[in-house]
Amino acid sequence: MTGRAANHLSFLIPTGAGGGAQRVMVTLANEIARRGRRVDLVVGRAQGPFLQSIGDHVRLVTLEKSNPMRGRWAAWRADPAGTAALVRPFLLPLSTSDMVSRLPALTRYLRQNRPDVMMSAKVHTNLVALLARRAAAVSTRIVVSERGDYGDKVKNSRRWRWRHIPPLMRRLYADADAIISVSRDLAERLPGYTGLAPDRIQVLHNPVVSSSLHRQADEPIDHAWFASGEPPVVLAVGRLEPRKGFQDLIAAVGKIVEKRPIRLMIFGEGKLRPALERQTADLGLSNVVAMPGWCPNPFAYMARAALFVLPSHYEGLPGVLIQALACGCPVVATDCPTGPREILDGGRFGELTPVGDVDAMADAIIAAIAAPHPKAMLQARGDEFSVDRAVDRYLSMFDMLVDRQSKVQGRQSLGGGFVSSSEAVG
Fold it and tell me: What domains are defined for the chain?
């Protein structure tokens, strides 16, 4: 890079709790700061396990929560011409996104700090970031990151206001300086419910596999299930919520134990725990299924499990599937939108089964345990999603946005006239 670089970067997330989006943003912030750039991690709520992973050189900024009505007023003032798109998802509901209440604080942050680039993750946070840039009237480049198929989320949710988010995405995402999709499949789906032109969307894979992952995979574990001579252990990791499909996986294990011994361990927490525990008890699997909760080092278990299963109904680019491959663990995944087919190269690196098909999942688990893929082949595939490779690509994109903007500003100072941000980045 010979032009102007993005020397001050900001990463915006709603909270340090949650799943893949938070992990990815913290990873990007840490690695970019390690490379010598100035980095802020801006959060709505300063809570959650991922905040414990923030590096010493990353500045944590917590956004103050304002009165919800003040947040809605700020959203309207940022885009009064967009009232029709704002009213149902943001202005009218009795309760709205927590990030809307933090819009005034985010606007102040942008005015006071003026980062070269701000990258946000998750739909509501993306929308608030774009409104805040409008309100602050700063030249900060805004990069929005799409991590899952929001169209599927709308179809599977009873929250009526979510149905009105795509029109707001269509309106505000037009202002974004870059729109990132974490997988090719997701990039192909986005235009269908956002109206975005396909050429506005870039595919950048998440930073997933680091050297620390391999070190953690080598750490010893002390669990009786992994002792020599014990039945094979199937592992799964994720939030305990309906879209993760753990209810299907437990049902599949219930079918398998009728034929051969097997055990299932699920790491994660969430609102579905009581229902999953009832299902486990009803199927007589209490001695077969374990749900220990959040695990600080699942990689040591991935390296020793007989199989990793991703039973999700929909995803973005599931990092846990990549992590399991990098640990050399054979995998089975549902062919859900989006990510597993891309990660597994159409089934070359692991079996893909139809979403919700318990019998197919049970058969695939049995087959994968009986004839696993070579460990070295799986590790090599996982390493293709390395942190270093992903960070190189993200930094190249950030620098390009800033360099283009500086050249546009240079032309303006010479010849006068106004050039919009969308024109500036092409």
Answer: 8-207+386-425 (3.40.50.2000), 219-383 (3.40.50.2000)
Rounded Cα–Cα distance for residues 230 and 241 (Å): 29
Contact 421, 177 (CB under 8 A): yes
Q: How many residues does the chain have?
A: 426
Rg, C-alpha atoms of the chain: 23
Instruction: Show pLDDT as tens, one digit a residue, over the chain (426 residues).
Output: 457 899 999 999 998 876 778 889 999 999 999 999 999 999 999 888 778 889 999 999 999 999 989 999 999 999 999 999 999 888 887 777 889 999 999 999 999 999 999 999 989 999 999 999 999 999 999 999 998 776 666 665 666 566 788 889 999 999 999 999 999 988 998 898 888 899 999 999 999 998 899 999 999 999 999 999 999 999 999 999 999 999 999 999 999 999 999 999 999 999 999 999 999 999 999 999 999 998 989 999 999 999 999 999 988 889 999 999 999 999 999 999 889 999 999 999 999 999 999 999 999 999 999 999 999 999 999 999 999 999 999 999 999 999 987 766 655 555 544 333 333 332
What counts of helices (H) and strands (E) characterise the chain? Answer: 18, 13
Q: Which residues face 201 on adjacent strands?
A: 179
**CA–CA separation, 9 vs 39, rounded Å?**
5
